[in-house]
Write a structure and sequence with these properties.
The complex is a heterotrimer.
Chain A lengths: L2 H10 L14 E6 L14 H10 L4 E3 L6 E3 L2 E6 L5 E6 L13 H11 L14 E7 L2 E6 L6 H4 L10 H6 L5 H10 L10 E7 L3 E6 L18 E6 L3 H9 L5 E2 L7 H5 L4 E6 L4 E5 L17 H9 L3 H9 L4 E2 L23 H11 L5 E8 L3 H14 L4 E8 L1 H10 L4 E2 L1 E3 L6 H8 L2 H4 L9 H10 L5 H18 L2 E6 L2 E6 L2 E2 L2 E2 L5 E2 L4 E2 L2
Helix pairs in contact in A: 9-11, 10-12, 16-17
Chain B lengths: L2 H29 L4 H6 L5 H11 L5 H13 L13 H36 L4 H15 L2 H15 L12 H7 L1 H28 L1 H8 L4 H38 L5 H10 L3 H29 L7
Chain C lengths: L1 H5 L3 H9 L2 H18 L1 H4 L31 H37 L1 H16 L2 H12 L3 H28 L2 H8 L4 H37 L11 H8 L8 H28 L4
Classes of the chains: A alpha+beta, B mainly alpha, C mainly alpha.
């Protein structure tokens, strides 16, 4: 901290000032890889949208620092009834939206009803247990159809953030979608109560957040957060240009630094290279159907072949060439280490060529079998992964060929099953393992990430875990699911990666959470 | 034929062209794997959600019905609503178009400033070393991939020497000139090489022409010859070339805008393709076609003004 | 085709050609490029796809004159093997457009009429269509890869050849020999292919040379977007794209393939300019 600003604060403030003086003011310039399109709790469906919701809106509860429990948020108190079917919350007194209008239980009811409306929100399924929501003044009551062990986590998740009912009532438009778009386009305060409000937006170019002076949380100096006056976002899709922009001092932070550049930036005295722990896992779904989409027999339908591929993949070498060491092999087959209930099964398919070859010959795989790896066009990481895997699997008699496609094509192929293996990744949106486990393994959700894998025992365990209120029993069910999944190997289990963000030396207090959320609440920038 | 009549005829001829462009782009985007519903709903949405979005977007209608809607709405000036941006395509394009036009015009001006004088020097020294040096240097400019030379310029001129900004595109005219200098120079390196080549041979052609030889023999000062004959001829051929390459130039901004983080039409087009945003891709393509056609028309009019041999027909 | 056009004055043609230093330099560069493209294995010191995890991103040295890449592959060998892909690109990316364009251009130029009208509209539609978009879309529909890229490029490029050819044929029709052919009762085919085409083809050939350099550049751009050559195949654009994140720390990764593109482009262009000088009718 600069001496000047400390002196300034001492002179300016009374003796009642807390001992710790706090840098305040200034705008943080932040370079993003992709822009937000609509930051609305229920319509945010891409990471660049989801990860900004928390800056503009507040949730009733907040995730604790370790991510394993919840703390009061907009709701000062909360309790779950003994039968687990009623959640009672009391809103904090005097919370204001960014335009100064006050928040009441009505707003919470409106927001939750919106969030659980399947006609509106793609996330409504996560709130399927809610039967009704009601409010009396500041008291909010949520009645559930069945006990739901995830409900408190869900109240700390972006899609249940509270919006102003009045703002929606007043917005032009016939449908909720139109109103939401109109509110976003108006770039004004009044719809959320988060630490910032949206005060500028140029589609595909830039975005501005301005401090919400009515924000309820207090900073270290006893005055309301945030410390910053605002955040200015520039969208710079090209990795190399984004880094240059930081090095030239035009921005104070650049996100999504390619791992190949991390060491170089760590050595730069003007840059504070951060690797934030994440729930991001990188894996590749393997098609497990008996036949390929074209009707030919699928060699990967045999679990022994899939296991052989896993044994035959040298994860440490991959982490070396793709992540330049900034990552670790997956240790649970279904989730990142940081997720609640993650089993530590490491080493998960540690590199063992002999075992791999034995499994291949046991499965009777023809040498020279052609397998296609579908990768993202233009992704340097994917190109490297392909070249490395092609070499690693050659001794197994597998001839790996590549098919480069764009994201939309990959998504369509995942749905239709027209692939052998394709690269993929995941970051949790919810502080609970149910979402990622449902995605990767529970057949009804997404055919086990499109692999077509189906295991009745797994599916039953998943359904039971969704209602299991006893944490220990729930944990045991998740442990069993992870064992089953590891044994069946519907994925090529690869690695976990942190979020790599490069900060200028002037920036302090910026955080990216394991869920990816960009948190500017306590960030400062010294000029 | 009077110019007005000519313009009218040309505009009329554009109708089938635009119709053809619309047919091609309409079919092409629908042949792309995946569709806007999949791209919009994200990988995690259920199949039922995607079907619902398809219905909402009208993608479940028969192709002919969809095309008819596209056609009739376009004729009425409605390009539809961007799926990606959730706003009207017209508004999105109105936002981005000026940036790309600015970038294109700026790079053309820079190209002329670079190529013009050097072409004269090269032509007047034909076959001698200045000619060889100039042609080789321009040839190198012509062979450099934009995504590489752009980054080299950014690394050295912007990040290390801090002569120019790395990102942003400025608000005022002056700021724009400053911010868009590097991207324009990158495009200009390529364009100026083409212009230089063309200009050089146009000048040589005039210098060799009998009427100029005759004028020289008559003892007319060479400055006058250059001014009267060479300049005009050079101008005609350059304008023709620029008109013809305007499509390529604007197409090329697709990569330049990505490298330099300039939020123009090119980058928007790339985003639209990746998101399978049918209305936006269609709208951008049509805008592009209209622009290029108008430039062609203006080029021809300009040509006929300058060159009496070129009759409007 | 060129045999027909030039056979009558071949000896003096060669002698004239050798007197042009630019043309000779162009021929040498392209000749050597073709040699590298046909026999990359003879020149490359290593297997271009051999991964060596112990030699990652090494700077240029005696054992690796161009250094090594992210997977420890020898950059020199990759640049040399890329000649095969890029020279192939230059030829296959243009030759279909050239042949189709020349034939269609000659036919519509000769017959005119309704076919010419339709041709005009198609040309306008293709030229006013954003070119990269068409290529990207076609590649996305057919799937990325070199062959599909050639198809995509040819779909657009034939128009330029056809337009050029049509204009030349129309100009040639004004000449006496074409009229004479008609008077003598030659068949259309004979007039078009024996008389008009050889005389009109010169500018097309010159344009073709420049076009080959442009196609290499275009292929590189598509490689940068991930739509061109497929890994692990080395291609200059892909090599540059791989190396562009390391311009300040491992400059050799992008500079060497960049030089290869520039040199080849220079070669084609010198060849094109030289040919144009040589073939352009004087006076």
């Amino acid at each position: 901290m600069h001496l000047k600003s400390v002196l300034g604060l001492v002179v300016a403030s009374s003796l009642a000032m807390p001992a710790l003086a706090q840098e305040r003011g200034g705008t943080l310039n932040f370079a993003r890889y992709d822009g937000s399109r609509l930051i609305d709790p229920i319509y945010a469906d891409r990471n660049p949208d989801i990860w900004m919701v928390g800056s503009l809106f507040d949730t009733l509860l907040r995730g604790s620092a370790d991510g394993n429990s919840v703390e009061p948020g907009l709701a000062e108190t909360f309790s779950v009834s003994d039968d687990g079917k009623t959640v009672s919350l009391t809103l904090r007194e005097g919370v204001l939206f960014a335009d100064g209008s006050s928040m009441s239980g009505e707003d919470a009811v409106f927001s939750l009803d919106r969030a659980r409306n399947p006609d509106l929100s793609p996330w409504a399924g996560l709130l399927g247990s809610i039967d009704s929501v009601s409010a009396d003044g500041n008291a909010v009551t949520i009645s559930l159809k069945d006990a739901d062990p995830t409900i408190l986590s869900m109240l700390a998740t972006f899609n249940t953030a509270v919006v102003s009912k009045a703002a929606y009532d007043a917005a032009p438009g016939d449908t909720d979608q139109d109103k939401s778009a109109a509110i976003f386009a108006s770039t004004s305060a009044g719809v959320g109560s988060g630490p910032f409000y949206l005060c500028g937006f140029e589609q595909g170019a830039s975005m501005d957040f301005c401090a919400n002076e009515h924000y309820w949380r207090m900073g270290a100096d006893g005055k309301p957060l945030p410390y910053l006056e605002g955040v200015h976002f520039e969208i710079i899709p090209d990795d190399a240009t984004r880094i240059l922009s930081l090095q030239a001092g035009e921005v104070d932070a650049a996100e999504f630094i390619p791992f190949s550049r991390v060491a170089e930036l760590e050595a730069d005295p003007n840059i504070n290279m951060q690797l934030y722990p994440s729930t991001r896992i990188i894996y590749s779904p393997i098609n497990t159907r008996d036949t390929r989409a074209d009707g030919s027999p699928n060699p990967l339908a045999d679990a022994r072949v899939r296991k052989a591929l896993n044994y035959g993949t040298n994860k440490d070498a991959l982490i070396g060439v793709v992540l330049h060491g900034a990552g670790q092999p997956m240790s649970s087959p279904l989730m990142a280490k940081a997720t609640q209930y993650a089993s530590d099964l490491s080493p998960l398919y540690s590199y063992d060529m002999d075992k791999a070859k034995a499994l291949i010959s046991e499965a009777g795989l023809e040498p020279g079998t052609e397998v296609t790896l579908t990768t993202l066009a233009g992704s340097a990481d994917d190109a490297t992964i392909f070249a490395a895997l092609q070499q690693m699997w050659a001794p197994l008699g597998i001839e790996l060929v590549v098919e480069q496609v764009d994201g939309a094509t990959r998504g369509a192929k995942n749905r239709s099953g027209e692939f052998d293996i394709h690269t993929y990744g995941w970051v949790n949106d919810v502080n609970d393992p149910s979402q990622v486990v449902g995605w990767l393994g529970y057949t009804p959700t997404a055919k086990a990430v499109g692999t077509g894998w189906e295991n009745a025992e797994f599916n039953t365990l998943f359904e039971e875990a969704a209602k299991e209120m006893d944490p220990e029993a729930r944990k045991a069910k998740f442990a069993k699911m992870q064992d089953l999944y590891a044994e069946a190997a519907p994925l090529l289990f690869m690695y976990e990666t942190p979020f790599a963000v490069a900060l200028g030396s002037a920036v302090e207090g910026y955080v990216q959470t394991p869920l990816g959320n960009n948190i500017f609440d306590e960030a400062t920038v010294s000029r | 034929m009077s110019s007005l009549n000519y313009i009218f005829k040309r505009l009329l001829l554009m109708v089938p062209t635009f119709f053809l462009v619309m047919v091609i782009i309409f079919m092409l985007v629908r042949m792309l794997p995946g569709d806007p519903a999949i791209a919009m709903a994200g990988d995690r949405a259920s199949d039922a959600d995607i079907q619902a979005i398809r219905e909402r977007l009208g993608l479940t209608e028969p192709m002919l019905v969809q095309f008819w809607l596209f056609l009739s709405n376009t004729v009425q000036g409605d390009l539809g609503r961007s799926i990606l941006m959730r706003t009207d395509v017209i508004d999105v394009i109105a936002d981005r178009l000026p940036i790309t036009v600015f970038l294109t015009v700026y790079s053309v001006v820079l190209s002329l400033l670079i190529a013009g004088p050097l072409a004269f020097v090269a032509a007047l020294n034909r076959g001698r070393w200045p000619d060889a040096v100039i042609r080789t240097i321009f040839q190198i400019g012509l062979s450099m991939p934009v995504f590489y030379i752009g980054l080299v310029l950014l690394t050295f001129l912007a990040a290390q020497l801090r002569l120019f900004p790395v990102g942003g595109y400025g608000d005022t005219f002056g700021e724009k000139l400053y911010h868009l200098f590097l991207p324009s120079v990158t495009v200009a390196l390529y364009t100026s090489a083409i212009i230089m080549r063309n200009l050089r041979s146009a000048i040589i052609e005039v210098l060799d022409a009998e009427y100029v030889q005759f004028a020289r023999a008559k003892g007319l000062p060479s400055r006058l010859i250059l001014g009267r004959h060479v300049l005009r001829n050079a101008l005609i051929s350059t304008v023709t070339l620029l008109g013809l390459s305007i499509g390529n130039l604007m197409s090329g901004t697709l990569v330049t805008e990505t490298v330099f983080a300039v939020p123009g039409m090119g980058r928007l087009m790339l985003e639209a393709i990746f998101a399978r945003d049918y209305p936006l891709i269609q709208g951008l393509t049509l805008t592009f076609a209209v622009l290029v056609s108008l430039v062609f028309l203006m080029t021809d009019l300009f040509q006929s003004r300058l060159d009496p041999r070129m009759r409007l027909q | 085709m060129s045999d027909v056009a030039f056979s009558s004055d071949r000896p003096s043609f060669v002698r004239k050609a050798l007197r042009k230093p630019g043309l000779v330099a162009g021929m040498l560069i392209i000749g050597f490029s073709i040699l590298l493209a046909i026999f990359p294995g003879l020149f490359a010191p290593y297997d271009p796809n051999a991964i060596d995890y112990n030699a990652i991103r090494q700077p240029p040295s005696w054992s690796h004159p161009f250094g090594t890449d992210l997977l420890g592959r020898d950059s020199l060998s990759r640049v040399i093997w890329a000649y095969q892909v890029n020279m192939q690109m230059a030829v296959l990316g243009t030759v279909f457009a050239l042949v189709t364009g020349v034939i269609i251009g000659a036919l519509v130029g000769y017959y005119r009429g309704i076919a010419d009208m339709i041709f005009g509209r198609i040309v306008d539609a293709v030229i006013t269509f954003p070119f990269l978009v068409l290529v990207i879309a076609v590649v996305a529909v057919l799937g990325p890869g070199l062959v599909n890229m050639y198809i995509a490029i040819s779909v657009v490029y034939w128009v330029y050849y056809a337009r050029l050819m049509r204009a030349e044929v129309i100009a040639q029709m004004g000449n006496d020999y074409a009229a004479a052919g008609v008077v003598m009762g030659y068949s259309d085919r004979r007039i078009i292919f024996r008389h008009l085409l050889p005389n009109a083809i010169t500018p097309v050939i010159v344009y073709w040379m420049t076009d080959m350099a442009l196609v290499i550049l275009l292929g590189s751009s598509l490689g940068y977007l991930g739509l061109g050559a497929q890994p692990p195949q080395a291609e200059w654009g892909v090599l540059i794209a791989e190396g562009r994140n390391f311009i300040s720390t491992a400059w050799w990764l992008s500079l060497m393939p960049g030089l290869a593109i520039v040199l080849t482009g220079l070669g084609f262009s010198l060849l094109g300019d030289g040919l144009a000088d040589l073939l352009r009718p004087r006076g």
